[in-house]
Amino acid sequence: MNMKIRERYPYLYETHLHTSEASACARNTGAEMARACREYGYAGIFVTDHNWGGNTAIDRSLPWENWVDRFCEGYEHARDEGEKIGLDVFFGYEAGFRGTEFLIYGIDKAWMKAHPGLRTAGIQDQYRLVHGAGGLVMHAHPYREEPYIPEIRLFPEWVDGVEGINATHSNSRSMAHNEPAYDSKAIAYARQHGLRMSAGSDIHTVKLLGGGVAFRRRLVSAQDYVKAILTGEDYVLTNGEVWYDKEGNVLTV
Fold this sequence. Notes:
Blueprint: H1 2-8, E1 11-17, H2 30-40, E2 44-50, H3 64-71, H4 73-85, E3 88-97, E4 100-105, H5 109-113, H6 123-132, E5 136-139, E6 161-166, H7 167-170, H8 181-193, E7 196-200, E8 212-215, H9 222-230, E9 235-238, E10 243-245
Parallel strand pairs: 1-2, 2-3, 5-6, 6-7
Antiparallel strand pairs: 1-8, 3-4, 4-5, 8-9, 9-10
Helix pairs in contact: 2-4
């Protein structure tokens, strides 16, 4: 079954990936992550390191532009390696608000430098700022329960969609956050509010799980991904073992 799906949707993208340059919880560099993902068979990856509101590895006391430069190093190292080995590497980040986290796509380093107000922006302001730049806001693992998440908080009016499938929750090889019910609840929540869905592995090491979003065509940029999600382009989701349609239904053929 997986082979048939991969034949129809040959371009698989990891949408949730961390590097040790910028995420304190990650164990491998951007270049190492890029090589592992290329060997696995991904067409591309999105580097989504933790920002100042999450488990960042970058000194929060740095001046804003210096902070952004340091923060982008994991992505830049992955991008440079990707150019050598034939892997598309796109920029994003994971924004944290007291344990509630959002995946941001479609913006870049220059935009971040030009918006120092991001550091103090709340969830509503974040949505407005990112949308003003033509970006995408996806609620990451909205029902995960961990000590660093003091409470489940949902903001359906301030997101474009939901990470319905997080491979750390439901892939049998996951060594953290392994609770499939988190995904089931996220899918139900997205359906209830008519929100778009994505999938990713939330991967922090080169021990890959294989989650992500697969398309019929190759993406050309992070902005292309934003457009594909917002316009309802044909794609499928996976936790690295099970495949789903973009509404979260398990695919059987």
